[in-house]
Design goal:
- Helix content is 39%, strand content 16%.
- It contains eleven helices and eleven strands.
- The protein has helices at residues 24-43, 67-83, 99-111, 131-144, 191-200, 204-233, 254-262, 271-284, 303-311, 316-323, 341-358; strands at residues 7-14, 51-55, 88-94, 115-120, 128-130, 157-161, 183-188, 236-241, 329-336, 362-369, 407-409.
- Strand 2, helix 2 (67-83) and strand 3 form a beta-alpha-beta unit.
- Helix 3 (99-111) runs parallel beside helix 4 and helix 5 (191-200) packs parallel to helix 7 (254-262).
Length: 415
């Protein structure tokens, strides 16, 4: 197996129905799918780190606004998903046009062990950003920070702007499928592919070419396995998301890859150029695509990013700047436990407006840590997290006209 050939997640996408969710037969077919998938990829030398199942938006099939009944239905769906071989379940996003649905997310995450969820900040008719949805998301993030003592509840929630369906990474992933048997995609863990390609290159052109070729080679070999699995199970293969998701090891850090290109710490001037070049190589690679295929900069999942943010070289404003040339936005950002809803509102609104103006998908997974202030070190003992210092937030939040009203008209640049 080539270095860098890691599958972060095999993610299935299914459409659940209002009254029935999924039939018993459908669950049996999903269990057969995960069993065949595990065998097929193991035979080829690959073992997905996790199996995930994403549904259409939960308001389409859970009996809301009856929260008690909805939680009971969700508990059964979660149980069925785990029994079918899935490690995690995404119940999809709350719509910006249904602000009452977002309040259910806090109940759902608190009552379950394997459930992820999200919320759209932008209006689906493309007319702008829902200020109501942004406020509700800010409130939810504060509430979720209290679900567990270390603020871990926000790991399971993301605010979305311009995010389509069928992304295999969570929490953003949700189903937008028509196939009765469902579909699936592969989320790759490939930051080390970039590190290796850039380390072996003697100039920027080789770096570009080596990374592009590494992606194409990995996709070519895996696609054959994926298509054979699709033929055997009826689950349509949507493609790959080669967003270079990192791991906490130094040689699996996207921060390491960026610094191999720029020669400066991530956050210093020159970092954006390195990020732009990396994403251009990914854009030029030829493979079957599904999902972001952008760039994650998750502070708590990447040793180098955690170090640079702790040093003060990498700030929240830098993450916004880098989001102009890549996705996916702000991910696993450790924030002060006493951050206000107004400050969270301002961060989320900036993200949503940036997304609408540039016409690109962005997400925010913000993690206020109870009892921690800016500069304090987190103390997670989660194998997929590294620890970092709490990032400071400048300002008290939006106080002017933007703090009022229900929606903000925002058009795409050049439209």
């Amino acid at each position: 197996m080539e270095q860098g050939m890691k599958i972060r997640s095999l993610t299935g996408f299914v459409r659940m129905q209002k009254e029935t969710g999924l039939s018993e037969t459908a669950w049996e077919q999903l269990q057969l799918f995960t069993e065949k998938a595990a065998q097929a990829f193991a035979d080829a030398g690959y073992n997905p780190q996790s199996y995930r199942l994403a549904s259409n938006p939960f308001a389409q099939y859970l009996p809301l606004p009856d929260v008690e009944s909805a939680l009971a239905r969700l508990s059964m769906i979660e149980k069925n998903a785990v029994e079918a071989g899935f490690d995690y379940l995404s119940i999809g996003p709350a719509s910006a046009e249904e602000p009452e649905a977002i309040s259910f997310i806090g109940e759902a995450i608190a009552a379950t062990e394997h459930v992820f969820a999200s919320a759209h900040l932008d209006l689906q008719d493309q007319s702008g950003v829902s200020l109501t949805a942004v406020r509700n998301a800010a409130l939810l993030i504060k509430q979720l920070s209290q679900v567990e003592p270390n603020g871990f509840g926000n790991l399971y929630f993301a605010a979305l702007a311009n995010v389509p369906g069928n992304i295999p990474f969570f929490p953003a992933g949700y189903a937008d499928v028509r196939e009765s048997a469902g579909a699936y995609a592969l989320a790759m863990e490939s930051a080390d592919m970039a590190v290796e390609a850039f380390s072996e290159a003697s100039d920027i052109h080789e770096a570009f070419l080596f990374y592009q070729q590494a992606i194409e080679k990995a996709a070519e070999r895996l696609e054959q396995v994926a298509m054979e699995l699709s033929d055997a199970t009826g689950m349509h293969f949507l493609g790959f998301d080669f967003t270079p998701a990192p791991f906490v090891e130094l040689e699996q850090s996207i921060g390491t890859a960026i610094e191999r290109l720029s020669g400066v710490p991530v956050g210093h001037i020159g970092s954006l150029s390195a990020i732009g070049m990396l994403l251009s190589a990914l854009d030029q690679a030829k493979f079957k695509r599904s999902g972001f295929n952008g760039l994650m900069l998750p502070i708590l999942e990447d040793t180098v990013l955690a170090q640079r943010s702790s040093e003060g070289a990498l700030t929240i404003k830098d993450l916004f700047l880098f989001s102009t040339v890549c996705g996916t936005g702000l991910d696993t950002v450790p924030l002060p436990g006493d951050i206000t809803e107004d400050q969270l509102f301002a961060i989320l609104l900036d993200l949503a407006v940036l997304s609408k103006r540039l016409g690109k998908p962005l997400t925010a997974r913000l993690m206020p840590i109870p009892g921690k202030a800016a500069g304090d070190l987190t103390d997670f003992k989660f194998p997929f997290f590294t620890n970092a210092r709490i990032m400071p937030v400048t300002g008290t939040g939006i106080q002017g006209l933007l703090a009022e009203g229900d929606w903000l008209p925002v058009s795409k640049w050049g439209s």
